Amino acid sequence: MHYTKEEINSMAAANTFGELPVSITKNENLENLLKLDLPEAIKDPVSNDDLYHRYFVKNAFWHKIPAFASITEEEFLDVKFQNKNTVRKVEKLIELVGEIAPGGFIDDVKEGMELAPMNLSISPYILSLIDWNDPYHDPLRIQFIPVNSRRVADHPKLTLDSLGEQGDSPVPGLVHRYFDKVLFLPLDVCPVYCRFCTRSYAIGGNTETVDKVKFTNAPQKWNDAFAYIASRPEIEDVVISGGDAYMLAPDRLRLIGNTLLDIPHVRRMRFATKGPAVMPMKILSDQKWTDALVEIVDKGRKMGKEVVLHTHFNSPNEISDITRRAMLHLFKKGITVRNQSVLIKGVNDTAEKMIHLIRKLSYMNVQPYYVYQHDMVSGTEDLRTSVGQTVELEKVIRGVTAGFNTPLFVTDAPGGGGKRDVHSYDYYDETTGISVYRSPSVDDSKLYIYFDPIDTLPASGQKLWEDESLHEELINNAIKSSGFTSLTPVL
Fold it and tell me: Whole-angstrom Cα distance, residue 479 to residue 28?
């Protein structure tokens, strides 16, 4: 497809590209361009499919849920409606989708929840975007609702705190791993609960299989963290996560932002939230919360300090026109939004899906920042991919758009090694699925080891892991092959 003068003229007049919104309007400059002969194209024509990332769902998609069939757009956009109707029990899920879900699906969920490390919590927005004709393959269902029939036995090296965050915590709710950065965890609740959460050891309530560590959403409990940050002059960068910054009341958001901005050596702050991906209407309808965020960003800018929002889209299916409007609102307020995805089997593990996500995020001014190799978290083995798959995916992604909108593919090295480019391993064996990383800036005396899911290995590799007596030998051979036997492996 190449545009003719007539098509460009028509688009400009209507400010539309079929169903695809565009940002051009008819003006004098465009009219002057239309007077010229169009240069001969040197690239192959593109199709509407190539530009599909510009399309944003605008219809009342929530009406397919019987209980929401009469809900107006105004009601659906109210964050109070979203919070009130968030699904936190299987019984509520039955009430909302029992009659439109396939037979046996709900029983499958019940059995899946008995073994899940995370509680159920899913917003009406996400629930309404799931394809209930085929929930088993839906990328949103995969992220938020476990089913027993798809469960895969854990790799023997999986843990709940795979990143070793608790070992790098000088005070509760604070992680100091990198020289100049800390992770502040002021609360342990989120607008939804992701199955793959790297903090399954803490987030949400206790489950049948996990007793959680607690982060307290109370200002008096945060003072030790603030005091530690103030006492360490090397700390310039603070990530406020949890839990989720979306769940902080506006006055507490301000308290955290203002306290950290008042510490002279803190230069950068990142509020981390899954919220825009799962409840974007909050940015539009909860004016007090959004105003608090804008105030902190503006104050930081006046002080010469950077305050940004980091969010977490994994699938273009999470994105609607509500999302686009919310991100446009933040963009117009001068707020930088960056995205961090987790690579998840069946969600974004193909080039087609990842390219679509990256282009869609870029189109609505959200910068693709990281794609994480799935952490080795217990109870999520059906979601993980192999390092080899990720390396190949990264090769295809590189070059599909501008470099600043191309995410880094990283492994957060298990045991506290921090983020490593996924391809920067010192050794990788695709048969055993063992990759060995060094992280000299974090600890130059240690080796960090990632293990691919066993079901992604060739038959010969799967057979090796069946014999528990061989496990130590497999690991030792990988360490020896890396050439760093003098370093201490973190296992």
Answer: 66
Tokens (6 digits) for 361: 């995020």
* Mean pLDDT rounded to a whole number for the chain: 90
Tens of pLDDT, residues 147-170 = 999 999 999 998 766 776 778 889
Token pair of 113 as six digits: 């929840």
Using CA atoms, how far residue 409 sits from 378, 406, 463, in Å, is 22, 9, 29
CA 182, 187, 190, 194 torsion: positive or negative? Answer: positive
pLDDT band at 17 (very low <50, low <70, confident <90, very high): very low
Q: Please spell the DSSP secondary structure of 319-357, one letter per residue.
A: --HHHHHHHHHHHHTT--EEEEEE--TTTT-SHHHHHHH
Q: Domains along the chain?
A: 5-54 (no CATH), 61-150 (no CATH), 165-423 (3.20.20.70)
Task: Give the count of alpha carbons within 13 A of 47, CB side only.
Answer: 1
Helices (H), 215-303: 219-231, 250-261, 275-278, 281-285, 287-302
User: How much is the pTM?
Assistant: 0.91
- In order of 173, 346, 354, 357, 391, the CA distances from 396 in angstroms are 38, 18, 10, 14, 9
User: Does residue 454 contact residue 433 with C-beta atoms inside 8 Å?
Assistant: yes
Chain centre to alpha carbon of residue 52: 22
Q: In angstroms, rounded to a whole number, what is the distance separating the alpha carbons of residues 76 and 383?
A: 31
Residues 343, 373: Cα–Cα separation, whole Å? 6
Crossing angle between the packed helical segments 351-363 and 387-397, to the nearest 10 degrees: 50
For 393, the token pair is 């995916």
Q: Is 281:297 a contact under the CB 8 Å cutoff?
A: no
- Name the residue among 371, 291, 370 with its Cα closest to residue 333: 291
Q: Which of 207, 239, 32, 221 is nearest to 120 (CA)?
A: 207
Closest CA to 396 of 359, 355, 347: 355
What are the residues facing 184 on neighbouring strands?
174, 240
Q: Using an 8 Å Cβ cutoff, are 248 and 186 in contact?
A: yes
Q: DSSP string spanning 430-463?
A: TTTTEEEEEEHHHHEEEEEEEE--GGGS-HHHHH
Strand-pair partners of 41: none
Q: Contact at 8 Å (CB) between 161 and 201?
A: yes
